[in-house]
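About this split. The held-out portion is used to measure sequence recovery: a designer receives only the structure tokens and must propose an amino acid at every position. Recovery is the fraction of positions where the proposal matches the reference. Here is one held-out target exactly as it appears in the evaluation file.
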């Protein structure tokens, strides 16, 4: 009996120690922001609400949208990149603004290298009327990408462990011809800002079916970014979609002006594969059709990968052939 009791005590001691270790790990994890369905749904439901009338640049309703996005930056102690969060476009005929924040890097040797992470928050305003509805709420295009960036604002704003500096940019007038991203890329280049790579979220609201990857990347062969992301993730997170090449999507989103201006790795990830969603620029592109759990998986899988990319001691993401 004594021997058995001793064994029980020893075993109990092991579990007690393991319990403390597990609890300590849990407590440490509490310091890190984890994206949740609730947080995602809150931002996404606001962006896609009828009161914003389809988020067309230069409209009065965009003031409300900008105030909402600015507040997320402020609440997470992400500073404005310029004098304010608003970066007024010089290439659009109405007052329209990117929303741009920055988190300074922690490494004295790397903090002058910048990573740009972005998505466009504008949409087309209205579309063909269906049953009295003309508001194109733009849930998948691209309230979901905007929401992803706000979740990264919360993560990196909370953790402050980025060695390189991060510019978090929400672009306007993408639907008018990539005007917001072109304006920002040109200004940054003119001011000799050293940009390491650009990463863009576009249309991640519904999952692909029958694919062996979570997301696909535009212009995947132009750099080793996808390869490094899969290496960091320990799984096939990013892959190739033939339709991306057919429709030349690399040139169709806000990554492209950064590639043009800087000749750096600049890519978009997406899960819209032309077969899984039929409401592109449609009044039925609504909040209710978005798969929040899928978005949560994309965001929470991408965050630690981006963190490793940002914190690598050397510039590991390179253009093909360099």
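Reference sequence for scoring:
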């Amino acid at each position: 009996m004594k021997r058995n009791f001793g064994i029980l005590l020893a075993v109990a001691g092991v579990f007690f120690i393991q319990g403390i270790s597990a609890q300590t790990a849990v407590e440490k994890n509490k310091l890190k922001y984890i994206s949740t369905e609730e947080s995602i749904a809150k931002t996404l439901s606001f962006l896609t609400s009828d009161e914003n009338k389809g988020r067309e640049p230069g409209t009065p309703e965009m003031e409300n949208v900008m105030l909402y996005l600015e507040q997320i930056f402020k609440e997470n102690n992400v500073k404005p990149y310029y004098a304010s969060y608003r970066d007024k476009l010089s290439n659009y005929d109405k007052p329209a603004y990117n929303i741009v924040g920055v988190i300074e890097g922690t490494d004295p040797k790397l903090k002058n290298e910048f990573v740009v992470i972005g998505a466009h928050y504008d949409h087309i305003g209205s579309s063909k009327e269906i049953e009295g509805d003309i508001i194109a709420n733009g849930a998948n295009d691209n309230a979901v990408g905007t929401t992803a960036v706000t979740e990264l604002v919360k993560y990196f704003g909370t953790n402050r462990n980025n060695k390189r500096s991060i510019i978090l940019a929400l672009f306007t007038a993408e639907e008018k011809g990539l005007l917001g991203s072109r304006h920002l890329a040109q200004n940054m280049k003119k001011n000799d800002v050293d940009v390491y790579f650009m990463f863009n979220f576009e249309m991640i609201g519904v999952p692909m079916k029958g694919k062996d990857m979570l997301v696909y990347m535009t212009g995947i062969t132009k750099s080793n970014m996808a390869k490094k992301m899969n290496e960091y993730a320990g799984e096939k997170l990013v892959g190739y979609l033939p339709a991306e090449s057919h429709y030349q999507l690399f040139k169709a989103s806000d990554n492209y002006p950064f590639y043009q201006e800087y000749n750096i790795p600049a890519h978009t990830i997406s899960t819209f594969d032309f077969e899984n969603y039929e409401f592109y620029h449609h009044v039925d592109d609504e909040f209710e059709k978005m798969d929040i759990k899928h978005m949560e998986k994309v965001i929470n899988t991408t965050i630690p990968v981006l963190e490793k990319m940002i914190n690598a001691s050397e510039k590991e993401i390179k253009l093909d052939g360099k």
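Annotator remark: The radius of gyration is 21 Å.
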